[in-house]
Amino acid sequence: MTTHRTAPILVIGNGPAAHQVLDRLRHFGCEDPVTVLGAEDTPAYHRALLTSALDGSLPVEAMELPPPPGDTTILTGVCAVRIDRLRRRVHTADGDVFPYARLILATGATPLLPDLPGLRTPDGSPAAGVAVLRTLADCARLTDPAVVAARTPVTILGAGSLGVEAAFALALKNRPVTLVHPRPWPMDHLLDAAAGALVRDRLTAAGVELVAGSPATAYTPATEGAPGTLALADGTALPAHTLLLCTGVLPETGLARTAGLAVRTGIVVDDRMRTDDPLIHALGDCAEHRGNRGGSLASGWAQAEALARHLASGARGVAPARRVLRPRIAGPGLVVLGMPGRAPSDETITLNDPANGRYARLELTGEHITAGVLLGFDRAIATTTELYVHDAPVPRDRLSLLLGRAPRLARAGSEEITPETVICLCNNVTHQDLTRAWHAGAQGLAELADATRATTGCGGCARQVESLCTSLASSTPATTGS
Ligand SMILES: Cc1cc2nc3c(=O)[nH]c(=O)nc-3n(C[C@H](O)[C@H](O)[C@H](O)COP(=O)(O)OP(=O)(O)OC[C@H]3O[C@@H](n4cnc5c(N)ncnc54)[C@H](O)[C@@H]3O)c2cc1C
Fold first, then answer.
1. What spacing in Å lies between the alpha carbon of 44 and ligand 1's midpoint?
2. Helix, strand or coil for residue 239?
3. Residue closest by Cα to atom 5 of ligand 1
4. Which residue's CA is the nearest one to ligand 1's atom 41?
5. What residue owns the CA closest to ligand 1's atom 28?
6. Closest C-alpha to 176, from 225, 136, 227
7. Which residues have a Cβ under 8 Å from the Cβ of 403 and sit 6 or more positions away?
8. Distance from residue 47's CA to the centre of ligand 1 (Å)
9. Which pLDDT score, from 0 to 100, does residue 426 have?
10. Looking at 29-43, 135-149, 305-319, 416-430, which range is the least confident one?
11. CA of 241 to the centre of ligand 1 (A)
12. How far is ligand 1, taken at its centre, from the CA of residue 481, in Å?
């Protein structure tokens, strides 16, 4: 057993929320040494890009987040198992002890296994053939060259945004995919029937078989030579060589709970991201702030900002996070702003154009977007998302907004990109910022992420940044570096 020196700030978890708080701490002038304990044996990476690793469009290295600035020690493959609040110490699975002055919990979330007969072995772990997608290790199992080469079919349970993304990614890798969903259309918690039908059509066009409308009732695990079987309430029995569960996540609260901290669904925190122990904070997917579980990068970012400000200067307050979801699906883009259909609004604009595979719904209160869905309106996605994220008023001519013709607004259509076009909406990085960084030597995806922070938010811009790299490389004379 090794007892380490007291860390002024000790962080448990090395995911995107931990990474963001380290960055913001330095930004706000906190120079305290920080030690991070991460259970995964990799550097911090952008979890939201996992499906791009699944379909092979992004090398794993490109998902890595840049090394945090300042005096930071990152220990990977180290799992914290107990917090001793009395002595202010954290114990790890290896028997090491890390005393702390201040502790930050950024333990994230873990996949939720539904209560379905047959899914678990008697010790509670997933049964044979059952897979999840939360970590690079999960992704590596699903992309094992042997199963990819054998085109082993995958049955995905749950057509929320993760299930839909995973289905497109696996289909792109030529894997036979069946997507099973208990409700009549995919992503029904965010999309209405019209938008859901368009996503269903896209899935079908990509070769995914969608089995919707009947809940799963039981799983019979695979045995040697025979695939598992997923039974549905309507009597269907689906073969399931690999059963990929995309059935939600649960905040990882075990450490906090056993340390006696207040936990409801997540670890309860106040506006300073403090738990009921003033020396312990929590943020990201593991935290519950004002009754809300985060579950998105936007909420983790807002919490990291609030916590870093508090630790650096004692300031208080969490800016409300504006949730933007950009599921990576084949074809023209999809964006979901906030939670459409949940709260009353003054005005709803709907444009349904199934013949062209397009759908838009914007909910407005006053002149501001409170929620929305855009599918197939690529030129409008950047402007509309930007207006929503910044809570800016929309133009009077709503149709021009949807058609991407709104004046003085950035556009996402490839021919109409201007230097001011915001490419990374999460970090407000423009085309010009990226071009300048590229010319200054950041000539790859990881380097541009490092220099500008583009792609380190929701990751929805990664492909756009990658193609910008390609086009800059082909249009620039080979003088740099020579
Ligand atoms: C495929 C996929 C796509 C997604 N797409 C989007 C998207 O488009 N937009 C969006 O907003 N969100 C998306 N998300 C969700 C987003 O990735 C999460 O909100 C984000 O990762 C939360 O960050 P976090 O750091 O709080 O938690 P996590 O990313 O879960 O990281 C927590 C880390 O803590 C470690 N840890 C846990 N317990 C311990 C311990 N005891 N000791 C040491 N380490 C520990 C874990 O191993 C993990 O590495 C997506 C998620 C997935 C899986």
1. 10
2. strand
3. 48
4. 80
5. 108
6. 227
7. 377, 379, 380
8. 6
9. 65
10. 416-430
11. 27
12. 37
The CA–CA distances, whole Å, from 442 to 23, 263, 475, 480, 482 equal 19, 43, 16, 11, 15
CA gap 17, 46 in Å, rounded: 10
Task: Report pLDDT for 412.
Answer: 39
Give the CATH H-level superfamily of domain 7-110+250-313.
FAD/NAD(P)-binding domain (3.50.50.60)
Would you state the pLDDT for residue 274? 96
Distance from Cα 48 to the centre of ligand 1, integer Å? 8
Taking the centre of ligand 1 as the mean of its atom positions, its distance from the CA of residue 169, in whole angstroms, is: 19
Average pLDDT over residues 62-84: 93
Decide if 198 contacts 376 (C-beta within 8 A): yes
Q: Where are the domains of the chain?
A: 7-110+250-313, 130-247, 332-416, 417-482
Extract the runs of DSSP E, i.e. beta strands, from 304-392.
Answer: 324-325, 334-337, 347-353, 358-365, 368-375
Nearest atom within ligand 1 for CA of residue 460: 8
Decide if 402 contacts 411 (C-beta within 8 A). Answer: no
- CA 457 to centroid of ligand 1, rounded, Å: 12
Q: Which atom of ligand 1 is nearest to the CA of 300?
A: 26
Q: What confidence tier does 450 reach under pLDDT thresholds 50, 70, 90?
A: confident
Averaged confidence pLDDT in the chain: 89
Identical fold for domains 130-247 and 417-482, yes or no, is no
Residues with CB under 6 A from ligand 1: 12-18, 37-40, 47-48, 50-51, 79-80, 106-109, 133-134, 162, 252, 255, 284-285, 295-298, 300, 325-326, 458
248 by Cβ neighbours in 10 Å (0-12 / 13-18 / 19+) ranks as: middle
Whether domain 332-416 has CATH 3.40.50.720? no
CATH 3.90.245.10 is the classification of domain 130-247: no
Rounded distance between C-alpha atoms, residue 123 and residue 32, angstroms: 42
Q: Are 443 and 455 in contact (CB under 8 A)?
A: no
Best of 19, 36, 47, 187 for a ligand 1 pocket test (most atoms within 8 Å of beta carbon): 47
Report which ligand 1 atom has the smallest distance to the Cα of 110: 30
**Maximum distance among all alpha carbons in the chain?**
67
| Predicted local distance difference test score (pLDDT) of residue 460 | 64
Buried b / exposed e over 336-354, threshold 16 CB at 10 Å, is bbbebeeeebeeebebeee
54 C-alpha to ligand 1 centroid (Å): 16
pLDDT at residue 481 in the model: 38
User: According to CATH, what is the number of the domain 417-482?
Assistant: 1.10.10.1100
Q: Whose CA is nearest to atom 34 of ligand 1?
A: 13
- 216-220: strand order across its sheet: 216-220, 228-232, 237-240
CA dihedral 456, 428, 393, 199 (to 10 degrees): -40
